[in-house]
Amino acid sequence: MATVAATHAAAQTPSPAAPADAVYDMIVGTYTSGKSEGLYVYRFDTRTGDATPVSVAKTVNPSWLVVSRDRRHVYAVNELPGDNGPASQRGHVSAFSFDPPSGRLTFVNQVSAQGNDPCYLTLSPDGRFLFVANYSVAADPGGSFAVLPVRADGSLGDAALTVHHQGSGPVKGRQDGAHVHSTVFSPDGQYLFAQDLGTDRLYAYRYAADGRDGPVSPTGAVETALKQGSGPRHLVFGNDGRYAYLTSELAGTVTVLRYRDGGRFDEEQVETLAEPGFHGAVGAAALHLSPDGRFLYVSNRGDANDISIFAVDAASGRLTRVGRQSSLGKSPREFAIDPTGHWLIVGNQSSDTAYVFRRDPQTGLLGPDPKRLDIGSPVDFRFVSPS
Asked: What is the pLDDT of residues 239-280, one digit of tens each?
């Protein structure tokens, strides 16, 4: 069940393609309770895989970020209060201007996320709104997502709409309430899907920038119910939009979903991430497709701390495992594949390290002897085109 509450009103989109073998800006989001100060900018050379530090922008817990289509602005969550903070504290979203030639970020403004523990951002396809998912470890205000207007100058306005989910799941301590973990647009931009770890559901909303009741509205009965206790986390669509792939954090799985008209999904396949016979803790996290869509990579935390590599069948969307790679650290919450498809960089949140693996575009496998970066609690990576 979802309720929509309007507040005072005032797709995640990729950057334009750049030439192969270019030098990109790589922006890294972190948690700042330890060694990190905020957002870090590196120059990433796709010919060598070398990353050279350029600048730092101080901000609290920028654990997820997105870059505007024109590359001139970066938006980052400020994930608060965290596990030990007061339930009365709300998280924030910060806007920064970005100068690609110098690699410098400049703070613009900050607004309330209208909830606890914001953990995911998505720009609408038209760039008019920024959607923020509030995981919320606190029952009050509970899991939600807010819709933030993006002004003409790139700054953010106060939330135009806040959507709260209601419900729970069977896993005590993890599903005592709703936990919105991500918001993802359909390929045609008509629907927004909210993945709720606490209620084991994918909620579909219609998107209309100038809608009478706000930018998004519920679609009635269009909810995708998943296995109880699985904990859906992140969703990504295949390159042709016919299939989507979903990580379920608590179950440690990745699911293949066939996308239907009207914002509906049919479950096609479920793959376990852990090795056969594995008995430790699991925690499925990030998933990303290679630029050509031929391979899917999925990270698994807990005691596994690795990345599963799957080949994607172009006709059926089904997955076939082709490999597994240790993250060489603890808690690989997020990773990224560079725009050329030749490198995969994974951050080990609990080890203060990131590793840059050479990637074989033909086999999908990751090479030995990766390059190491020492970064405090790295958890998100964004590449910005140089042109």
From this structure: 999 999 999 999 999 999 999 988 999 999 999 999 999 999
Q: Are 93 and 118 in contact (CB under 8 A)?
A: yes
End-to-end CA distance of the chain: 44
DSSP structure string for 27-70 = EEEE--SSS--EEEEEEEETTTTEEEEEEEEE-S----EEE-TT
Q: What token pair was written down for 52?
A: 């050279």
Residue 179 pLDDT more than 80? Answer: yes
Contact 228, 168 (CB under 8 A): no
- For residue 74, CA distances in Å to 96, 110, 119, 302, 382 come to 5, 12, 15, 30, 10
CA of 268: how far to CAs of 108, 247, 249, 277, 306, in Å? Answer: 44, 14, 18, 24, 24
pLDDT at 92 over 80: yes
The first and second tokens of residue 82, run together, are: 């965290």
Tens digit of each residue's pLDDT (9 = 90 or more) over 151-162: 999 999 999 999
Distances (CA, A) of 19 to 36, 66, 288: 32, 21, 21
Amino acid at 42: Y
Is the dihedral angle over the CA atoms 227, 233, 238, 242 positive or is it negative? positive
Q: Which residue has the tokens 């590599």?
A: 309
Contact yes or no for 55/38 (Cβ under 8 A): no
Question: How far is the C-alpha of 240 from the C-alpha of 257, rounded, in Å?
Answer: 13
CB-CB contact of 77 with 118 (8 Å): yes
Q: Which residue has the higher pLDDT, 90 or 14?
A: 90
pLDDT at 9: 34
Contact 322, 364 (CB under 8 A): yes
pLDDT tens-place string over residues 346-372:
999 999 999 999 999 999 999 999 999
| Angle CA 274–187–312, to nearest 5 | 35
